Amino acid sequence: MTKEKPIEKIKELGASISKQILKGDNPAIDVPIRALSNVFFDKKSKTLQLGESSSKRSFFNIAHAKKFLQTVEVAKIEKDLLDSGKHASLRDVFYMAKRTIPNTSVNLVDMQQESDEIIQDLELISGLSREQLHVNANKMGSVAGNVVIEDRGDTIDWGKLGSGGWSIPSNVEEIKFKKVNANFVLYMEKAAIFERLLEDKFHEKQKGIILSSQGQTTRGIRRLLQRLYEEFELPIYVLADLDPWGAYIYSVIKYGSINLAFFSKKLTIPSVKYLGITCNDVERYNLKKNLIKLKDTDIKRMQQIADYEWFKDNKEWQNEFKIMKKWGAKAEIQALSARGISFITDKYLPEKLKNKDFLE
């Protein structure tokens, strides 16, 4: 994609609105609906997809007016960023849009959630990601491995960055891979586990790439995982807690999320495999005394996930949910530390990888 194309897409929106005004029409913007009612599971691609339903956001409609103005204002901010060649954070955009509408006491935006939602709307309208529109999210992930990249003219070796690894940016589209020497990628939901694997040099001993976030994956992480899979055919494994939230994290990487169904093609990896922790692991390594009682919210969330179309016919996952419910408990990855501080790197993960002991 050329640098001019994002600007052209934003200009097209402005030109459309101007044309309607000059004709004396009520200016309106068609926005695809980002709701569960407009999301479906595509069994062929095994990903969540956005449907074709859309809504019209018009200026001379009291229910739409504020949203219409927010859309135009945020689009202007993105155009200014593209014109200047500079990037802004989601928080920056919020403050750039936060002001009182002239001759009123109404603020254009009151909370960041409002501007964040408009940014997602503009992604749908333009067909471009927020990163392509020069809006970035916070960095919330780290990676290490025998990989050398080029990022904005700087050469970076992921294997030589000390105890922290490389901080994964929001936008990974412009990264150029100069060398990738690995057999797999292991993603984990917890930074503490990443630090254990990094200190034990697991990635060097097992010839893998290790990557983490802190909880739910960011878009930058998901896109980086997908690039490593598509461009280098590396298998992707997920290491998460044995609880509904760990299952959901795995689900999002594999099938996509309802909120970002419109970007499934650029974010999902249908072949990703869940490496652990599983109920069998709890039994095999005698971790029952280290289980944590499920809360009512955990049980409710587990039932919701078990009913997802992509989980409800999966016998292995249904068995996991059934056993967790029977135990009334969940297990964290750190429970493996009860067997020794480096048990996870010396025995657990090497055995799981060797035996291909994972869930689909």
Helices, strands, pairings?
Blueprint: H1 4-22, E1 28-32, E2 39-42, E3 47-50, E4 54-58, H2 65-84, E5 88-89, H3 90-97, H4 112-126, E6 135-136, E7 141-144, E8 147-151, E9 154-157, E10 166-167, E11 176-180, E12 184-188, H5 191-199, H6 202-205, E13 208-213, H7 219-232, E14 236-239, H8 244-255, H9 264-267, E15 273-276, H10 279-284, E16 292-293, H11 296-306, H12 309-312, H13 315-327, E17 329-330, H14 343-354
Parallel strand pairs: 5-6, 12-13, 12-14, 14-15
Antiparallel strand pairs: 1-4, 2-3, 7-10, 7-13, 8-9, 8-11, 16-17
Helix pairs in contact: 1-2, 2-4, 3-4, 8-11, 11-13
Can you offer a commentary on this structure?
This protein is α/β, with parallel strands linked by helices and 360 residues long. It folds into two domains: 4-26 and 61-136, Winged helix-like DNA-binding domain superfamily/Winged helix DNA-binding domain (Arc Repressor Mutant, subunit A, Orthogonal Bundle); 141-354, Dna Topoisomerase Vi A Subunit, Chain: A, domain 2 (3-Layer(aba) Sandwich). It has helices at 4-22, 65-84, 90-97, 112-126, 191-199, 202-205, 219-232, 244-255, 264-267, 279-284, 296-306, 309-312, 315-327, 343-354; strands at 28-32, 39-42, 47-50, 54-58, 88-89, 135-136, 141-144, 147-151, 154-157, 166-167, 176-180, 184-188, 208-213, 236-239, 273-276, 292-293, 329-330. The mean pLDDT is 92.
